[in-house]
Amino acid sequence: MFLADYSKYFYFSFLSFDKTLSSLIIRTAHPARLTYEDQFARKILLLLEISGHGLIWISGALLWNVYRWGNAEMRPNFFLIGLILDVIIVGLTKAIVRRPRPRDNIEDMIATASIDRYSFPSGHASRSFFIAAYAFFVMPSYAQILITWAFVLSLSRILMKRHYLADVIIGANLGIVIGFVLGRFSNTHYD
């Protein structure tokens, strides 16, 4: 019984700490009221959000596979598999954990599924870090710019009040693991 009580206490303490730290990041970056400049910044952040949308990347991966049809190269296949695996893992985790998005989240996301009302883990962070990690192995000349993009996109998830810090950190780590495994496998077996 003691262990169950301790686990529950730790869990709720962690959630409280995560909310506090995320709020601190947001307060540091946002003034009390939205000005014209802040509204412009939000539009930029929305464009950044769209750049990490799953539909765009899965569509791109499908086109890459069609373009390489009949070619023995397996990298486009692994990229598509990674994106689909990422969506499945993030979706299942969101369905199980069901952590609500931050209270001040503005509901202006584009092309969402019902599971997207939950916050943990961040699908954008997971996807962007998967792409960056995969590129590290498969297209190293693009890796640096994609790693930068992944960091900026992930930070934007907190600044837009879409996610808490832990959502982004766990999502990023999930993406890195998927990208590392598939990128390394792709290079080892199909180089």
From TrEMBL:
Query: Which is an annotated Pfam family here?
Result: PAP2
* Transmembrane region(s): 44-66, 78-97, 129-152, 164-185
Check the record and name the InterPro entries matching this protein.
PAP2/HPO, PAP2/HPO_sf
- This protein's UniProt keywords: Membrane, Transmembrane, Transmembrane helix
Decide whether keyword Transmembrane is in the record. Answer: yes
GO molecular function annotation: sphingosine-1-phosphate phosphatase activity
- Give residue ranges for domain Phosphatidic acid phosphatase type 2/haloperoxidase: 74-183
Q: Which protein, by its recorded name, is this? A: Phosphatidic acid phosphatase type 2/haloperoxidase domain-containing protein
Species name for this entry?
Oopsacas minuta
